[in-house]
Amino acid sequence: MGGGGEVVVSVQQDVRVNPHEAWIKEEIPDVSDPGGELQYIVKADIPFSVYFFTDRERFEQYDTFIKGRKPDETPPGNPEFSQTAVQPEGSDIYKASTDDGGARESLDESGPYFFAVDHSNYRMETRVDDYGDPLKAFVDLTVIRNKLPF
Q1: What is the CATH classification number for the domain harbouring 51?
Q2: Contacts by 127-130, CB closer than 8 A, 24 or more apart
Q3: How far is residue 133's CA from residue 17's CA, in Å, rounded to a whole number?
Q4: Within-domain flag for 1
Q5: HSE-up of 107 (CA within 13 Å, CB side)?
Q6: Residue 79: CB partners within 8 Å, gap ≥ 6?
């Protein structure tokens, strides 16, 4: 993987997420034709989850939950790219990333895509108190559309 391509999304920023909320990058363009790649690294000092949705209806259920309402269901994000952050041994930070420490991974499902850094009790994968601390995270996210071969 790797090589050329058109960068369609590039985010490198610090984000602050209050308890029971999420930082969301919405409407990431479809890169499934001719194919694309995703890479991300998110780091923070407290636990969090990352959800990557490749289905608008599933994202809308998630968005309903984040907005404080009861969704019909709480679907997971795409299992290849969604995960709960882990704390590497000997580290004081939590990290979630694409495989191999944030390497590019093939993204062939059709979009649009939705990327969420979650600081809520969605799916009970991390526990967040009502009066807990905000999540302060650094997000490094890139989505690439592959170039067609000549």
Answers
A1: 2.60.120.680
A2: 127/47, 128/19, 128/20, 129/19, 130/19, 130/20
A3: 9
A4: no
A5: 33
A6: none
23 occurs within a structural domain: yes
How many Cβ atoms from other residues are within 10 Å of residue 31's Cβ? 25
Note whether residue 12 is domain-resident.
yes
Examine residue 44 and state whether it is found in any structural domain, yes or no: yes
Show the domain range for 121. 6-145
pTM score, whole prediction:
0.92
Q: Of 111, 98, 104, which Cα lies nearest the Cα of 33?
A: 111
Per-residue pLDDT of the chain (150 residues; tens, 9 = 90+): 455 789 999 999 999 999 999 999 998 999 998 889 999 999 999 999 999 999 999 999 999 999 999 999 999 999 999 999 999 899 999 999 999 999 999 998 998 999 999 999 998 877 787 768 899 999 999 999 997 665
The residue behind tokens 């636990």 is: 47
Q: Please name the residues in contact with 89: beta carbons below 8 A apart, sequence gap of 6 or more.
A: none
At a CB cut-off of 8 Å and minimum separation 6, what does 65 contact? 71, 74, 120, 122
Alpha helix ranges (H) inside 5-75: 56-66
